[in-house]
Amino acid sequence: MTGIGDVEMGARAARSRALAVLRVRSRALAVALLPAAAAVILLAGGSTGHLAGGGWDTARWVVSALALLVLVAAAGVALVVARSRPAVTPTVTIAEESAPDLYRMVRDLADRLDVPAPSAIALTPDCDSWLEDRTHPAHGPPPVEEHDDVAGIGGPARRRPAAASVLVIGSPFLWWMRVGELRAVLAPVVAGAGPSAHPDIAAARRFIRGLDAAVAVASSDSRGPLARVLCAGLGRVCRLLLRGCRVHAAQMERGVAAAAAERAQAVDYGLRIVAQEQVGLAYAGWDRLLTRVALPAWRMGRWPSRLDVGVVAALTELSRRDRLAEGFASRLGERPACDLLEEPGLMDEAVSLLAARLFHGGPAETGPDWAPVGWDDYPEEVVDRTWRTDAARLHRVLDTLGVRRTAEGAAPGTDGPTLARVLEHLTTTHAPSADAPATRRNRTAPADTHTGTHTGTGTGTGTETDTGTGTGTETDTGTGTGTDTGTDAHTGPGTANEPGPDTDAEPGPGTEAFEGPAPGMEGVGGSASGTEAVGGPEPSLDHTEHLGAHGDAESPGGDHPDHHAAADHAGADHAGADHAAADDDDLVGTTARGAALAAGLSAQLAREEAQAQPTGSRSAQGAAAPAGPDTALWDDRALPLLPLQPPRTGREILTAHITAMVCCAAMDTAGAAPGLDWLDGPSLLVDGARTVDLAPRVRSLVETGDPGPLRAWMTELGIRPEKPVRLV
Question: How far apart (Å, rounded) are the C-alpha atoms in residues 347 and 424?
């Protein structure tokens, strides 16, 4: 009795809130009719002779004109609200003939819960499930129902099959969960069809969706000044009505959810508790698979065609590694929910293509630059190609910086792309100071002469010469005395003198020279885009932490399809310089050469992205597979709809390119191989084992210019940095 009472209380609360929403609509209609009512009164008074005179005649004309104007405006707003197409979630519809067992299970659930059954079932590349109303005329005719029991029990529901909603199921649930777990998870979702079928709640939802769609219409680009004025008025009215309905609509949905949850407690309650644990686990595996595995492939123009199978592999690997997942592997002996589909491979392929469009903005059909890739081919097609593309870009930027091709100690005639060239360029024996970041040495400045004399606690003398973009000389002299004096003299256009201490006292004699930015970096401005250190804290949707030795690269053939026009080299260089200047603080503490190289890589990537053919502008036709995304129901002109992460920063780009070069050298000189880790993405395999200790060594080189840890690691694995590597 308590459960039945709670269900009724939730349903009554939802209906009362729905009536409140409808009252907002009624008040808006009353306000629109008020001038017309006043005009009718004035006209009736004039016809009967009660309101006679020149003043009343003027009032009748003014009020009548105002009433006509308000009625026309109200009719226009009502027409737009009624005809605008509400937003629809991008999904892949499952035909009943391709999943009869799944439809049968959902109908049994609806019969047991005493609610109307959904009219159709669709899949979405997300870890969620819900009921979605697609009965708006703009969405096309409702699906024809051939079975009497599909609309559920009850006469009104049978006579109105078009009112039934579409059940949207997250595809990771279908592949990871067992049949009983999926049934338990869907029980409260299907139970929501009961209160949703109430006429008042359905009318309130249609009104809110219409207002939301009208706001979208008003926000679209208009061509003429009159159209902009009309759209501004339409948007203001619809937003005002939405603000009036906001609280009531939220409470209405809470009431529907509460009633559905209470009603579903009678179905598989104990199993639903276990299934909820699988929901969180599936979300974690799906998140890591998209950001660590799928995103590098999408950037290379490849889309994994079995993402849901990858979720199962990733979660199985997680259950093997993570103590929190103990016992979950035993579930694999039960029947998976994907067995309810006749052809799960085709559905997985369609959902994988839809995921690539939603999260990355890829085209809707396969082509030369957008081909599917299987998991067996992923290491060669994605990992190897990613690393070699990054390494080729790194050497192109080094060429623009004027760095010589032959590294010190290399054999005569060796001028190919080598790792030794990169290490030699980034190596410095002077660690940057926290008070005076090395990135400042890289900035362009007028002629600057810096001379300092110091007496400190050192022994012997030391001379240090620092040459930046201007001319600078610094002399440090240490003696055995206990006093320290310093003077700084800056000579340039307009001489300025200022005193200051110099903490750069080094024992023993020695001379150390630091080079400024190499030729070719003047257009970048001597600064680099900011990043965060490799191996730092990892956001939940960030794929840039390099666990192991994998490097994420952006393909020069079409990385970001949202660009609508190609830019020339000068414009891309300018954009890269602006981005580098904005993120300069992130590279504080790194070496000047590292900052310059990061800026060059950022500019090169921006140039390649601007010149890439916009793949997202292709025809939005469905895939060749029998089941494809419902592109006719949603607007895909602005893709990606759900980008996974913000653009990479300068340090992430620099670290990824150096890591890629190291991996290329390991594959070409030490017999290593590219690999795929289900939880961490691209990885380097040495003797069949995944390397996990490369990231801190690359970070040491990037931040301090110290190649010692990296060289020791390479020596241990037999990597030859002086040998040329193969690039794409």
Answer: 51
